[in-house]
Amino acid sequence: FNDADQDIILYETIHIFESWYFTKVDMVDFLKKVVLFLQKELGFSSHIDVYMNCVFSNNQRNGESQNALIRMLSEIASEENSEIRNTVRNDDRFVVYVDDGLYSGNRAIKDIENLIKTVPFGSTIYAFYFCATSFGIDNVQDKLNLLAKERSVTIKIFRNKIIENQIFTQKDYAAEMCEESYFTIHKCLWPS
User: Fold this and answer.
1) Angle at 146 between CA 141 and CA 152, to 5 degrees
2) Exposure of 182 by Cβ count < 10 A (0-12 exposed, 13-18 middle, 19+ buried)?
3) Which distant-in-sequence residues (6+ apart) come within 8 Å of 157 by Cβ?
4) Fewer CB within 10 Å, N side or C side of the chain?
5) Three-state DSSP class for residue 154
6) Alpha carbon distance 157, 141 (integer Å)
């Protein structure tokens, strides 16, 4: 970078890290919120009921993020004198998929598609992402709903933080112009 630009780049980088760098503590807090949400959503009386009645999938084929999150979740459950399960049984109704990020949705589609094929008919898959792009959520939901419907599986996708990256096109035929831009409700741009 040019010497004249370095200060600006450094300040902007610091700004991005202050808003978008997440620590292990942030991830543990996220996982605790997931368990609390499931407890309320499913009408359980305690976190222990969530651990006993939900399967926490660890089927990510590429990467280590899901393994790390499942290990953290296992530590949280252990602190509460419980443990989590990650093997689906024939009578399981609630399967939980957690991951750190959802970008284009391609990995999620492959992983959750495999999960849909292994869960019992009539199950619900709860997918939780620490951070997700709006395009990724729409992409995953659209592509997986068809397969899920065939097996009477419901998919519910949640995110802790969202990055808006939907592009919309505005055409002005009189001026012969076409302008592509991003919606303006995001804190940063993410390539789609």
Assistant:
1) 105
2) middle
3) 127, 129, 132, 137, 140, 141
4) N
5) strand
6) 8
Report how many helices (DSSP H) and strands (DSSP E) the chain contains, helices first: 6, 6
Cβ neighbours, 10 Å, residue 21: 9
Write out the chain's pLDDT in tens, 192 residues.
788 878 887 777 776 666 667 788 888 999 999 999 999 999 999 999 999 999 999 887 777 788 899 999 999 999 999 999 988 888 889 999 998 888 777 888 888 998 999 999 999 999 998 888 878 888 888 889 888 998 999 999 888 877 776 665 555 556 565 555 455 544 444 333
Give the chain's radius of gyration (CA, Å): 20
Taking the C-alpha atoms of 107, 56, 114 and 190 in order, what is their torsion angle to the nearest 10 degrees? -20
Q: Report the alpha-carbon distance of residue 88 to residue 96 in Å, rounded.
A: 10
Residue in 160, 178, 168 with CA at minimum distance from that of residue 36: 160
